[in-house]
Structures are given as C-alpha cells and as structure tokens.
Specification:
Strand order of the largest sheet: 3-4-2-1-5-6-7-8
Shape: globular
Radius of gyration: 21 Å
Strand content: 15-25%
Order of helices and strands: EHEEEHEHEHEHEHEHEHEHEHEHEHEH
Number of strands: 15
Length: 377
Amino acid sequence: MKILMITDYYMPHVGGIEVLVREIAERLASIGHDITVITIKLPNTKDFEILNSVKIHRIRVPKKNDRYWFNSLISILLILKLSNDCDIIHAASLVNIFPAWVASRVFRKKLVVTVHEIFNGLWLNFDELSWFSRAANKQLEKLLISLPCDKYICVSRYTKNCLRFMGIEDYKLKLIYNGVDYDFFNPNNANSIDVRKNLNLNRNFVYIYFGRPGFSKGVEYLIKAVSLISAKIPNSKLLLILSREPSKGYAKIIKLISELDIKDSIILLDSVPRKILPCYILASDCVVIPSISEGFGFSAAEAYAMGKPIVATDVASLPEVVSGTYVLVEPKNPRAISEGVERVHKGDVSIKNNEFFEWDKCVCEYLRVYEELAYGK
C-alpha cells in the first residue's frame, strides 16, 4: 500500500504529533508498505532522504508562521505531484487538511485526517491572543472541519465528541488512541540519581512540568501556584523543562517568574534530548499537567509509565488518559494546582486501574482504516 502523510513537522522536531507520525510511518514501512512524508524543512536537514525506509520530502518555507505557509499553496504542488500514485492521503492534523483535501479531490483519493484537539468556543478564552486572532482561529477551525474527508481519526473520546458536536457523522469517526513506548518510558531503564545530584535536588520534593508553553497548556497557572506550594512544602522545587517555542509563550512565562520573584523555587531547563527525558521524569516526585485543553495527553500516559503520581486538570481528554495514582484539579486555578501537589506530598491520591496505550494496536488500527478505505476490506 502507498500512503502519503502530510505533517507540519517531522523528526528531529520533537512533539506528540511527530512521534505519532514517525511510529505509523516507520512501523508500516518496516512491513513493506510504501510510506512518503511531506513536511517542513528544518535547519540541518536534507530536502529529501530515506530514513528507516520512510521517504521524507522537506519543503522550504519562511520561518515566521511556517505552519501557515506550509499548509498554503507552497506545499500543494509537491503534494499534487506525489498524490497521483498513492492509495491514501493522510493529513496528520486538522491544520494539514487543506492541501491534502485539494489533492484528494484532484486525484479522487481517499483522505484520512487525524484530529488531535478541537478548541471551538475555547478560542475565545485564550486571553494572550488578540480578539481578532481568537475569532479568526475559531472560524478557521470551523472552515477546516467543513472540508469533507473520508475518515476522521480521533485520539480520544473527548475529541470524538467534539467532532460530533460540530456535525461530523458517526460513521466517519474512528477512535484510535495514541501509543506510548513502554520500553522507552520504563523506570528500570532510567537513571534519576545523576539528575537529582547534578541539579542539587537530593533533599527536595520535586514536581515537574515538561512540554511547550502553548496557550492551551496552562503553564502560567502552574507558575502562579509555585509560591503557594512553597508555603506548604518549604523544600519543594518546580523542575520546569520548557520548550522555547512558541517564543511568545516562553517569554510570557519568563516574565511571570520574574514578576512573582520565585526564581529560587524553580529550576528552569530548556527541552532536554528525548532519550534522557525519562531520567528527569523519574527524578521527580510528581508530574503536573495544568492544561486548559488536551486532545490526548502524552505526558499523562508517560508519567504513569514511569510510575509517577500525576496532578492534572479535570478537562478534555485527561480524565480518560490518567492512570495509576493521581489528583484531578480545577483548570485555570493556581490554588487548586497547589492543593493537588500538596495532596500528592501527603499521599492523599486517587487510584485508577491501569490504562495502556500500545503502539502496535494503534498502528494496526490505522492500517485497518487505510485498507477499508482503499480496498473496501
């Protein structure tokens, strides 16, 4: 089977969607399927290469607003060129649907889109965006959903219900949870001793956030909770592993830390190489996920895999994904986050039967969708 996958970013760029696309592409290529990925060209990457049997075409776009450039006319010519000979076109996220939809209509190919998250009315609550930007993004999301495709892959029941609410019929919806690499996120394979020693954390209660400072991630509410947590747990430290992108979100968090004068309670690190991320998770006493919305919540599943208690907001997909020992708290509420961390410190946690998200199952279900659409199986 020949599958064309369209995604904003691909490895070495790090993120949840990138992991999903890589796992699908490489696992299917390893069993003989012809997989082509079209993506944005990153610094120090080639225009074309074959990695682990996956053919990767990278398109040069302006750095500023690169995702919007990529999903406009810039990418369509190459997508059209490669679409004629494929069996399935797969847009890896809703943002990628426009060029994929154009190609699917020109060559009458079946189109699959993975929908990770729907904000809908939430756009209007993202105060850091201008009023115009909030309204424009809300309308753009609605417009993209209106472009008909053959199957919508939903990464959680929450996302599936959002699409139902927006008028997508059930027969076009398929729930396929993302996977987690349980060999990689295995506490027996990680070394936390060196992390705590190098960061001088041996006597501290450590709560960790790792990820992007995106407007839906709620990092600012965690930062506002730090002084409250320090008052209740004097030896506590926030281990903040924060991507510098988006740059506006990063600058906002740095400014907030300075304004609140809480630098001594935080250890701020840039994103660490993925191969050592499990060591930092293992070095913590709990993982905090303060999201305002979450389509799947990789960090929740990964924290459970590492055997760590979780403090997560009670929103979107997080109640489906959290497992093991956890505390759910009200979103956008620093005091609730603080109380959640205090509960973990005291051992006052909820317990949920284990939720496992296997990559083998995930990729097999994607392949089944491809085959049903292409061959009517």
